[in-house]
């Protein structure tokens, strides 16, 4: 049952993404930019954390 729910959720997400891309490409581009900025910020934060750990965690 969980597999079917997951497939349905992924299908709905793909349909929604295609709908947004077709109806408003500029807004879709904004969403992609926001997503990549979020991923970039998260990667930077993880890098900063790992550097902090490697430096002795503030000791």
TrEMBL record:
- Say which domain of life the source belongs to: Bacteria
Q: What is this protein called?
A: Uncharacterized protein
- The species this protein was found in: Streptomyces triticiradicis
């Amino acid at each position: 049952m969980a597999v079917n729910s997951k497939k349905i959720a992924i299908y709905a997400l793909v349909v929604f993404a295609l709908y947004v891309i077709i109806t408003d490409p500029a807004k879709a581009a904004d969403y992609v930019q926001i997503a990549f900025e979020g991923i970039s910020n998260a990667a930077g934060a993880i890098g900063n954390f790992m550097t902090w750990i490697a430096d002795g965690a503030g000791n």
